[in-house]
Amino acid sequence: MKTFQMQCKVEIIRILRNRYFVFWSLVMPIIFYYIFTNLVNSDVPNKAEWQAHYLMSMTVFSVMGSSMMTLGIRMVQERSQGWSTFIRITPLSDSVYFAAQMIGQSVIHALSITIIFIAGAFINSVSLTPIEWVMSGLWILLGSLPFLAIGTLIGLMKKVETAAGISNVIYMVLAVSGGLWMPLEVMPKMMQTIGKWLPSYNFGNGAWEIVRGELPNWKNILILVAYLAVFMLLSKYIRRKQEVA
Amino acid sequence: MNEILSLNKVTKSFQYKTAVNDVSFSIGKGEVVAILGPNGAGKTTTISMILGLLQPSSGEVKLFNRQPNEKQVREKIGTMLQEVSVIPGLKVSEILELIRSYYQQPLAMKDLIDLTGLTEQDLKTRAEKLSGGQKRRLSFALALAGDPEFIIFDEPTVGMDITSRNRFWQTVHYLAEQGKTIIFSTHYLQEADDAADRILLFKDGAIVADGTPAQIKARISKQSVSFIVDPERPLEKLYQHEEIDDIYRKNNRVYVQATNTDRVLELIFQEKIGARDIQIERGKLEEAFEQLTSGTKEAI
Questions:
Q1: Which of A151, B84, B114, B232 has its CA 20 to 30 A from that of B244?
Q2: Considering CB atoms only, which of A10, A81, A85 is closest to B98?
Q3: Which pLDDT belongs to residue B269?
Q4: Can you tell me the distance from the alpha carbon of A224 to that of A231, in angstroms, rounded to the nearest whole number?
């Protein structure tokens, strides 16, 4: 138990000390949020709804990024610097290590969500019912699972540079085509059709539904679960292949 | 049960080469053993198999009579790998606390610092900013964090300056006095000779000699009796004795090589060849090492 607590604590400290995390997951989403809700697009019909919608977009954007990049790159770093090898010789069990990574990551996500929500409440005085705040926060926390699985896939890469480059591209493509930067409705028909099947859109849409006073679609949940399963299996498969080699 | 480690007919083949070939040995409690050999002799591969990081292609490795990767084994071993490992984003003191938390009975933080010579400054430094020497000290501290019974070092002194090296070996002596079992690999003969009470000499993936430094020396290095003698004096009589391996002249002295030097002395007096200034020469371990690890296998 002491090991587990310690491991969680350490994972959290490490993320907070990571400048890329602070920049990409906290500073950037808040700046984007300010820009897109105040400097552009100010002539939307229902301003309050747009501000709440976009706050969700940016929070989803933040959590999606740290799930994939922070986790993935850290895994590559640990392996390339010999740390993973050293850990294998200690009594630390794989399950404790893995669980601590996930818990540490979730605590960080909860923190990001809280900070960005508070920023939204301050910048545009977004006001939601307490239930909506909590529900959307929880949705974002749980919905990050498929992206954590993508993170573990990225974590299987050999070099930190490759992992950082590739995860950045995936991150941006998913964010834009999933409608996190601008709503899917303003995009060409083709993009909309594809976008609706992407994990990023389904992740975002659940939160958008909640702030509109609805419940997330069953379809959103099913698609995210399906992606989670696929990425986990893929990650496991590649890992096994790498071990054999 | 005093056997800490045993390897039974262990072989490890990679795609193109056999790195370790049919190696068997066992180590008892309290032994300090050096795995000595040139680069590419299979030292690191052997250590990786002992640690359970590599699976042998055939044969069996047992630590504390268990599989190397069992948790009970992990609790009792500490290791310093050749490739120094760090975890980015944490200070040295935090890393040590973390690793200590993995073990049921870790070494007290103070002891850890005292033993490894980590400074206040080191402890506050983040892992990614450590110098090579600091990383080595951290690595050493990580090996001792769990207060292990069995310590495995792979080329521990590579990259250490003389001061750290001396300090390191002092600590190893101290740990040995505490009854720890220690195995380390090195390609420095001097280190093996100074620090170990047993040497396993590796060459081409196999053990070519196993014994105390003195035994190895006695076994492989040629001993000889040298003396000054009137150059006119014939030495044929000595050649007739089978115990003598070789006779040659060097720097005005005659050298008589043989395994049993006492017998040579006896012969010298018996044959009355008028030898003066007689000396018994023992081969240097360095030479023996060279002979064994380079050149042909016939030397063994």
A1: B232
A2: A10
A3: 85
A4: 11
Element housing A138 (H / E): helix A130-143
| Cβ contact, residue pair A6, B83, below 8 Å | no
CB contacts of B79 in chain A (<8 Å) are 86, 89
What is the distance between the alpha carbons of residues B171 and B138, in angstroms, rounded to a whole number? 14
Nearest to B101 among A2, A77, A78 (CB): A2
What are the beta bridge partners of residue B6?
B26, B62
- Of A10-24, B41-55, B224-238, the poorest mean pLDDT is in B224-238
Give the model confidence (pLDDT) of A129-182 as tens digits. 999 999 999 999 999 999 999 999 999 998 989 999 999 999 999 999 999 988
Residues in A touching B88 (Cβ below 8 Å): 14, 77, 81
Q: H helices within A17-46, ranges in order?
A: 19-21, 28-34
- CATH of B222-281 among 3.30.70, 1.10.1740, 3.30.1050, 1.10.1760: 3.30.70
ipTM above 0.90, yes or no: no
Answer whether B81 sits within 8 Å of A3, measured CB to CB: no
User: Could you give the CA distance from residue A95 to residue A67 in angstroms, rounded to a whole number?
Assistant: 19
Q: Where are the domains of chain A?
A: 2-244
Q: Which residue intervals of B152-244 are DSSP H helices? A: 162-177, 189-195, 213-220, 236-239
B-interface mutation test, from A84, A86, A88, most B Cβ less than 10 A away? A86
CATH topology of domain B3-218: Rossmann fold (3.40.50)
* Chain A interface mutation, best of B79, B85, B92, B149, highest count of A Cβ atoms under 10 Å: B85
Q: What is the mean pLDDT of residues B280-290?
A: 70
Q: Residue ranges of the alpha helices (H) in B221-260?
A: 236-239
Which two tokens mark A218? Answer: 């069953």
Distance CA B263, CA B163 (A): 45
